[in-house]
Design goal:
With 246 residues, this protein is of the alpha/beta class. The chain is 28% helix and 22% strand. The chain is built from eight helices and ten strands. A ten-stranded mixed β-sheet has the order 4-3-1-2-5-6-7-8-9-10, covered by helices on one side. The two termini are 34 Å apart.
């Protein structure tokens, strides 16, 4: 029996709002904690400790009850029973900061539902721990000109080398401040290690303390730059934010 426990923010069912699976119904398991502080982060709850987390009592009901953190794998599976075989999106925060718990938990869920991992793409060692038990990886590449942080090129490179062994797509948040040389560096990385995967350019979503947007002309320019070297480039905004749904 494993001794790992997880810390969550919430569990609920909704439509996937990002990437190529947009519009697909999923159950979302949102993990606490993230080591990054992107300027455009829309989940400030990631950065505080949660003695409790909320869990939807039945899928799509928006009726919630409260559970105590931390939680065991068995307790999590019991909570997820009403969600049946809905695909699970592991999101955050950054789920891979709890990779040991996730690896232990997913080993007991083999075949029960498809697993999508949403990750900032900077923890390759942690990814390796869970790789055999997930089906799809949604990897971010963080551009410093947009995040307001340092670059993570080395971490992203090591991550994509591992992630390409699964179904993979990559998201890059773009804004008016996007530096062309950074986008080109990201494209070079994708071209080198996983040239056939979908690359999603995600226009930044304005939030309360970050109102930067992107002009249509600039977005088209970044798209054109990307399609000159990659075969599957898509522009997909955060649809759940547009629809004001969970």
């Amino acid at each position: 029996m494993n001794h790992y426990q997880g810390r969550l923010i919430e569990i609920y069912a909704s439509l996937q709002g990002e990437g190529p699976y947009v519009g697909h119904p999923m159950a979302f398991v949102r993990f606490q904690d993230c080591a990054l502080h992107c300027k455009f982060c829309d989940t400030p709850a990631s950065f505080v400790a949660h003695p409790e987390f909320r869990s939807e009592t039945s899928p799509f009901s928006q009726n919630f009850c409260w559970k105590t953190n931390p939680i065991t794998a068995g307790e999590l599976n019991q909570i997820l029973e009403p969600f049946g075989d809905l695909p699970l999106s592991l999101t955050g925060g950054e789920p891979l900061q709890q990779a040991d718990f996730i690896a232990a938990w997913l080993k007991g869920r083999k075949g029960r539902s498809k697993i999508l991992l949403e990750t900032n793409g900077i923890l390759p060692i942690a990814l390796d721990k869970v790789l055999n038990d997930i089906d799809i990886i949604s990897m971010d590449i963080k551009l410093p000109s947009v995040t307001g942080m340092k670059d993570y090129w080395r971490e992203h490179e090591e991550f994509i080398k591992i992630a390409r062994n699964k179904e993979l797509y990559i998201k890059i948040v773009v804004s008016e401040e996007t530096a062309q040389n950074e986008l080109e560096q990201a494209i070079t990385m994708v071209e080198r290690y996983a040239p056939q995967i979908p690359l999603i350019l995600q226009p930044v979503t304005p939030i309360e303390n970050f109102s930067c947007e992107i002009r249509e002309a600039r977005l088209k320019e970044l798209y054109k730059i990307s399609t000159q070297r990659l075969s599957d480039v898509r522009v997909i905004p955060q649809v759940h934010a547009m629809l004001n749904i969970l």
